[in-house]
Design a protein that fits this description.
Belongs to the CTL (choline transporter-like) family. This protein has helices at residues 12-34, 37-43, 108-118, 138-141, 164-172, 181-193, 195-218, 220-251, 259-293, 298-313, 320-344, 367-398, 410-449, 456-490, 494-507, 509-542, 552-590, 603-618, 636-661, 666-693; strands spanning 74-77, 83-84, 89-90, 94-97, 150-152, 159-161, 347-350, 356-359, 628-630, 699-701. It is mainly α and 702 residues long.
Length: 702
């Protein structure tokens, strides 16, 4: 290991392969635009293949094709709320019109008057406006009455209904598990009427995450205990408030309210009961986990303190989630636009109803598979670039003895090294994650399609495979992150870095398990704190609207957004702690504090090591009195016992969660959880126990 000494390009073939893949993605986009898909997507087209807003050429054997729609710039659907749930498209005749009806049209006379006043004919091209009220074909060739008020979608020239009930029918295409349409209508109505509160609470979660990141910088030494106390108080307070609101609403008089308000009140009462029970169970489980981990926070405090110093010296780390999110949004916007282009590209084909559809034939019809792989690989590539950037900056901080000699902007220096030397390594690491993620997504899709059709055994096997692939993906993600750290230190290729990092992690397997368990749990408490604070504020605000708003869905949206925001920010802190630990392990392995082999580590970590050594000596586990040994942070037997205890609680919690949250039989729950325990958790414990017996001799510091 030669930290920050030599720099060289790594994994160049993988960089070339990634560039070729991106060229293929560009070819798909260019092909879809060149075949006219861009015009059909942006301007829209009718059911006869005519693009709105321009002159069209005649299609062979297609009636009403080749029309001049220069003055008709908008697509109008005769029945916009008629959806094909299987193919996820509108089953309606589409026409090009001059204007969208801004007000509801209840009769054919209103449709005729709208056509005469605005010059926008809403019936079929074969029917003149003067014949709307007299022709016998008006019921087929004219829009379904009443015609809902609509407005053009910006940039896409489609007339979209503005009625909330029609939006609910659109949502039914995706939310197929809701059998009562009135419930779905009330849920969406609650979201629409509470949109200002939702936006305000989402902004509150962002502010709370930023405040927590600032607090971490300055009070990292006491952060663990502060988070623990706040989470305890927040969990108890949130649970108490939920039960209080449930009791209050249950005792409230219901004789003076309308039937519609009574239904809303019953929905809110049921939601409050579910929330209160869930909060109570969550609080009990949280207390049990914190009780088990209360003795294992010393090293976490030391690492958090050093991580706080890193953020003080590298303040731009706080803004990493913004740049990553911005890059992902740009790429996802490009990907979605290209996907829409692909959905309208191809040659015109007449369907059974005599209308025109555009379909791709031949090998090009499989381009969307390539496009989906590109979504996963490039997204993982962007996330891996963030990991490499953070790792490079933290490595520079750790292995610079005099912090006054740090680069002016270590983050930009790390980005520069990434672009100049290590893009190939990032491409290879992200490709490995893609290879694991794609089979898992395919199995999840198969499971969703076969839901309710397969037998219990097949369901158990399928879920077990999905779970094992998920565990493999998480392990590879952690190994990749440490491989990027090793690359940032030594400038070696991905395989060499992964091997070197794996050796270090195996030699410190028990420490890794303890640190990750406690550290990740502490950061999870921070996420819980932000979610609880935002959710509590949402409960108090939405409670004032309970008479006319079903706030189940708004509260879920707010809590999910708060968790995602907190995860984005605190994941950076988690990366810093993981990089610091790997640097610390390398430092203690190859340096002993003697002249020429001085430690790079911070004084806080040295104090922790010394305190741990003294505690072990006092317990009778130390060596000779005059020798100072760099012992493991906790004894091997103690760490193995900790892992066994954690896995036992993990198995119990998994069985309890599956049995309470799913409708499956108890035997199926036990089977799938035991399989996960036997093939994932138990081997980890055995390997840890084996490694504790093969631990290398201690490094003596004279």
């Amino acid at each position: 290991w030669k930290p920050l000494e030599d720099r060289s390009c790594t994994d160049i073939p993988w960089l070339l392969l990634f560039i070729l893949f991106c060229i293929g993605m560009g070819f798909i986009c260019g092909f879809s635009i060149a075949t006219g898909a861009a015009a059909r997507l942006v301007s829209g087209y009718d059911s006869y293949g005519n693009i709105c807003g321009q002159k069209n050429t005649k299609l062979e054997a297609i009636p009403n094709s080749g029309m001049d729609h220069t003055q008709r710039k908008y697509v109008f659907f005769l029945d916009p709320c008629n959806l094909d749930l299987i193919n996820r498209k509108i089953k309606s005749v589409a026409l090009c019109v001059a204007a969208c009806p801004r007000q509801e049209l209840k009769t054919l006379s209103d449709v005729q008057k709208f056509a005469e006043m605005n010059g926008s004919a809403l019936c079929s091209y074969n029917l003149k406006p003067s014949e709307y009220t007299t022709s016998s074909k008006s019921s087929v060739l004219c829009p379904k009455l009443p015609v809902p008020a609509s407005a053009p979608i910006p940039f896409f020239h489609r007339c979209a209904p503005v009625n909330i009930s029609c939006y609910a029918k659109f949502a039914e295409a995706l939310i197929t598990f809701v059998s009562d349409n009135s419930v779905l209508h009330r849920l969406i109505s609650g979201v629409m009427t509470s949109k200002e509160i939702i936006l305000g609470l989402c902004l509150l979660s962002l502010v709370l995450s930023m405040i927590l990141m600032v607090i971490i910088r300055y009070i990292s030494r006491v952060l663990v205990w502060i988070l623990t106390i706040l989470v305890i108080l927040g969990s108890l307070g949130g649970t108490g408030v939920l039960w209080w609101l449930y009791a209050k609403q249950r005792r409230s008089p219901k004789e003076t309210i309308t039937p519609e308000q009574l239904q809303i009140a019953e929905d809110n009462l049921r939601a409050l009961l579910i929330y209160a029970i869930s909060a109570t169970v969550f609080t009990v489980i949280l207390f049990l986990i914190m009780l088990v981990m209360r003795k294992r926070v010393a090293l976490t405090i030391a690492l958090f303190h050093v991580a706080g110093k890193v953020f003080i010296h590298l303040p731009l780390l706080v803004f990493q989630p913004f740049w990553t999110f911005f890059a992902l949004v740009l790429f996802w916007a490009y990907w979605i636009m290209t996907l829409l282009f692909l959905g309208t590209t191809g040659s015109p084909v007449q369907n059974e109803q005599g209308f025109v559809e555009f379909k791709i034939s031949g090998p090009l019809q499989y381009m969307w598979w390539y496009h989906v792989v590109g979504l996963i690989w490039i997204s993982e590539f962007i996330l891996a670039c963030q990991q490499m950037t953070v790792a490079g900056a933290v490595v520079t901080y750790y292995f610079t003895r005099d912090k006054r000699n740090l680069p002016f902007t270590p983050i930009l220096a790390s980005v520069n090294r990434l672009i100049r030397y290590h893009l190939g390594t990032v491409a290879k690491g992200s490709f490995i994650i893609t290879l694991v993620k794609i089979p898992r997504m395919i199995l999840m899709y198969i499971h969703s399609q076969l839901k309710g059709k397969e037998n219990a055994c097949a369901r158990c096997v399928l879920k077990s495979c999905i779970c094992c692939l998920w565990c493999l993906e998480k392990c590879l993600n952690y190994l990749n992150q440490n491989a990027y750290t090793a690359t940032a230190i030594n400038s070696t290729n991905f395989c060499t870095s992964a091997k070197d990092a794996f050796v270090i992690l195996v030699e410190n397997a028990l420490r890794v398990a303890t640190i990750n368990t406690v550290g990740d749990f502490m950061l999870f408490l921070g996420k819980v704190l932000i979610v609880c604070s935002t959710g509590l504020a949402g409960i108090m605000l939405l409670n004032y609207r309970q008479d006319y708003t079903v706030w189940v869905l708004p509260l879920i949206i707010v809590c999910l957004f708060a968790f995602l925001v907190a995860h984005c920010f605190l994941s950076i802190y988690e990366m810093v702690v993981d990089v610091l630990f790997l640097c610390f392990a390398i430092d203690t392995k190859y340096n002993d504090g003697s002249p020429g082999r001085e430690f790079y580590m911070d004084k806080v970590l040295m104090e922790f090591v010394e305190n741990s050594r003294k505690a072990m000596k006092e317990a009778g586990k130390g060596g000779v009195a005059d020798a100072r040994e760099l012992k493991p942070m906790v004894g091997g037997d103690e760490e193995v016992a900790a892992l066994q205890e954690f896995h036992f609680h993990f198995l119990s919690l998994s069985v309890f969660t599956d049995c309470t949250s799913s409708g499956e039989a108890f035997v199926i729950c036990i089977t799938q959880d035991v399989l996960l325990f036997l093939f994932v958790c138990l081997p980890i414990t055995w390997m840890a126990e084996f490694l504790s017996q093969l631990r290398p001799p201690s490094v003596k510091v004279s």
